[in-house]
Amino acid sequence: MEDETVGGDSLLRKLKPKLIDILTADPDLVLQHTDSIGLLTRREYADVKSIPKPSDEVRDLLDYVIQKGSSTSLRFLSLLQEKEMQETFPRLGSLKWNGDGELYQNEKNIEKCGVKRQQPMTVEELPSKLLCTNSIVTEKDLMLVASKIGRHWKQFGRVALGISTVQLDQVVADNPCNLVEQIFAMLRIWSMRERSKATAKHLHCLLSEGDWALPPDDIKFLLEGS
């Protein structure tokens, strides 16, 4: 049987029962870190924070992240490998995903990036195994993308790229009355922060899902020559 393609949301869904058990020890810490990298809207943050039962708080937080798709789920899994999270929740280091279970249709974007199911992975290994790899995105690529992203550009920046509201406000202030330059500046912030992970294929994945998803023909240039 051929290897099946794995998406971040599917992986997070499979890890969900164990993560609820582990993260219930300090759900507020998880919520604050998740919010700090822009994975939740203000309403979602308030909804989760208002839940009195710790296990339910973690459950709803994970559900919100999973609903946002593969790239957001991968960013959450990457968050779990940060030093503070590992020290607070030492059991995270022992988590493994065994690859059993069905896949979902909304994982087609990950499939385009050539990510295949591998041997059982620890949480620490997930991001490097699943993030799309390719040549580093160029400024020309960023400008072409900037010219195609429409009214959802700030939502894309916050949710998919992890750009803070403060940074977005500064981008607008630095490039008044020029939407394309504003979006280009936002994309440069992302590429400079991600460095070697800011690849053309990774950006293509991010632009292929969510409310901001672009038509395939508009971004196929990101996959050409890879």
From TrEMBL:
InterPro entries: CARD (IPR001315), DEATH-like_dom_sf (IPR011029), Death_dom (IPR000488). Residues 138-209 form the Death domain. Pfam families: CARD, Death. Residues 10-82 form the CARD domain. Gene3D superfamilies: Death Domain, Fas. It comes from the Eukaryota. This is Uncharacterized protein zgc:174906. It comes from Clupea harengus (Atlantic herring). The gene is zgc:174906.
